[in-house]
Structure formats: C-alpha cells, structure tokens
C-alpha cells in the first residue's frame, strides 16, 4: 500500500498525480482495434483508417507513445521525490491499455482518492482538453458509486507556461546549431501542430470568448519561441504555423496549410531549408515520427529541401520540472492559497477549472470533470 502524503507534503492535499494520455497500439494486432476506438462514432472514412494503420505498420505495429509516457511517469516520480514528496504518479489512457477506468479502480483500491491530473496535451480545444475531461467522467461513471469518494482535479492548460516555451526554445537552439547562419534568409521555421476541424478551433476557449484559442495559443508559443531564439543566438528566422495529421471527411474543413503542401510551396519560392518544430505535441509519438519524420521529410527531400526536425519536450528536465510546478500550483489552489501562476505573456491564462461550455463537444453534450459544467 502506497503511503499517503503528510499534511506538509508540497503536493498536499493530493494522494497521487494522474498522467492522462491518448494511448497507442503496442503490437500489430492492436492497431485496428485502437483505430476503431479512436474514431468510434466519428466521421472518419474507412480508407483513412487503413491508411493510418499503414503508418503503424512502418513501425512494427508499435506506437512510441506508451513507452514515452512510461519514461515520463518515471521522470515525474523522481522529480517529485527530489522535492521531498512520495506522492506516486499513476497513468491512464483514452484509447489503449492502461485505460483510465482501470487506473482509477486500482488507485481507489489503494486508498488514493485525491488525484491531480496532468494531460499530455498543452493546448485548449475539444480534442486536447474537454474530451479528456469527458473521458475522466466516463471512467468514474464506469466505477459507479464506488467512485463517489474520488476527488479529481486537473492542472491548467500549460502551452503558454514559460517552462514549456523554454524547453521548446532550447530544443530549437540546439537543433539549428549546426546550420550555417548565412543560410538563414532561405530557411523557414515551421511550427507544427495537429490539424483539427475548423469548427473545433472556432469554438475553442471559454464559452463567452472569441473562439480560436487553439490556434491563438500556438501562435503565442511560436512567437515566444522565435523571440527566445533571437535573444539566445541573435538569429532571426521567418516562421509560421502549419498543420499535420488531418483526418475526417474531405468535405469538412480542417486547419490548413498542411505541412507537406506548405513545404512544396516554399520550395517553389526558393526556400532551401525547413526547420520543423512540433510545438503542438509533448512527445515524439506517431504523428511526429510518421507524419513529420517520414512523410514531411520525404516531401522535402524529393524537392531538394533540407529538413531539420526539432525534438519535442519528451522527458527534458525543464519540462518535467514545469509539470511538477503545475501540480504544486494546483495543490496550493486546492489548499485555498493565493496562487500567482507562471505565465509567459500577458495574454489569455486559462483556469485549472474550465469554464462552463468551453471547448464544447459539437456532436453531443456529455458530462465532463474538472469544469464548471
Ligand atoms: C488535437 C489533437 C491532438 C493533440 C492533443 C493530444 O495529444 O490529445 C491529437 C493527438 C494524437 N492523435 C493521435 C492519433 C490519432 N488521432 C486521430 C484522429 C483525430 N485526432 C484529432 C485531434 C488531435 N489528436 C482529431 C480531431 C481527430 C479526428 C477524429 C476524432 O475526433 O477523434 C486518429 C484516427 C485516425 C486518423 O488519423 O484519421 C489517430 C490514430 C495520437 C497517438 C499517436 C500515437 O499512436 O503515437 C495522438 C497523441
Ligand atoms: Fe489525433
């Protein structure tokens, strides 16, 4: 049985941290069941599923995402111990084993009743925030009345946290250290994230807000990273935001431009190097190693364009410290203390308890935890 934290624990009142992630297959026979789970009830054509299954086949049917989360759990556990706490780090997924409901059941059986959730997704949108909150509600529902004594809080969206900006800046500085500066005029820095339906971006953010918070947060992070690069190295790269991993029906508009289309246009304009920085993701999972390292790299190489890919946050110590800082911040908030959240610009700071109606589910209204609705 895991010991419960004492009252002077930096993470009190929490008994455990719960890392919540997307999940991925780990063997060839898990690929199609995983894809059907991901797209259940959604408008994703069968050919797209077979196409995506082929991505996983290139990697032996195993996505890197679960191993990356195992490494993150270990790193978070070490960092928490370094701060003098023995609060354990649990892990549950939306789409693959270990499923959230199983993790919650096991936590409860061990007497871990007060959990602080960290999502492996930094940005605000239905897919990257509310859907995980719905998954938490569904998982507690699955446990039935037994879950009534569980407290589940969540750290706030952390894209515009100075630590997340710093780790992405650091990775960029290192990735281009070997590129000669006299080529910077013909180099383009492409910040990349997962495309989502335009309607999902339009409604992202607080219900009474302007929407488009998903894209807005990426633009802020990109601008801050490019500014950090300038400050650190004096180098000024032209930059823009592009998208990868579009799915859904071709008739539904999704965020564009696609990274491959944009590289093709840039090649025609005389760009000779693209630096691809996937700031929308926190680890080098399948959307990164396939959609960027295989597909976008092949597009660039076919056109004679040099392709440099910047690593994601992964288990970088600054990222791990940032996540534990966020848990400490959430714990202080739960204890009723006045909290001054670290934020990298004066723009939109999202609360840890989501507004009613924010980042709505446009298909059906479902219960969601960690919010006012
Ligand atoms: C915003 C966002 C993130 C970032 C935030 C976060 O991390 O949560 C993200 C991450 C990921 N997306 C992933 C994989 C997939 N996403 C799909 C489909 C979709 N993603 C969407 C959005 C996002 N997705 C959407 C709107 C769809 C359409 C269907 C639906 O509304 O659900 C599909 C279905 C097939 C297809 O691609 O068409 C797959 C296989 C993996 C796992 C990679 C691995 O295995 O290593 C990860 C981390
Ligand atoms: Fe996705």
From TrEMBL:
Q: What domain of life?
A: Bacteria
The signal peptide, as residue positions, is none
Q: Give a Gene Ontology cellular component term annotated to this protein.
A: cytoplasm
Q: Which GO terms describe its biological process?
A: heme biosynthetic process
Check the record and name the InterPro entries matching this protein: Ferrochelatase, Ferrochelatase_C, Ferrochelatase_N
Under Enzyme Commission nomenclature, its number is 4.99.1.9
Binding-site list for Fe-coproporphyrin III: 63, 132
Q: In which pathway does it act?
A: Porphyrin-containing compound metabolism; protoheme biosynthesis
Per UniProt, Fe(2+) binds at: 194, 287
Segments spanning the bilayer are: none
What top-tier enzyme class does this entry carry? lyase
Keywords from UniProt, A to Z, are: Cytoplasm, Heme biosynthesis, Iron, Lyase, Metal-binding, Porphyrin biosynthesis
Q: Where in the cell is it found?
A: Cytoplasm
> Which GO molecular function, any one, fits this protein according to its record?
metal ion binding
Under catalytic activity, the entry for this protein gives: Fe-coproporphyrin III + 2 H(+) = coproporphyrin III + Fe(2+)
What does the UniProt function comment say about this protein? Answer: Involved in coproporphyrin-dependent heme b biosynthesis. Catalyzes the insertion of ferrous iron into coproporphyrin III to form Fe-coproporphyrin III.
| Family named by the database record | Belongs to the ferrochelatase family.
Q: What protein am I looking at? A: Coproporphyrin III ferrochelatase
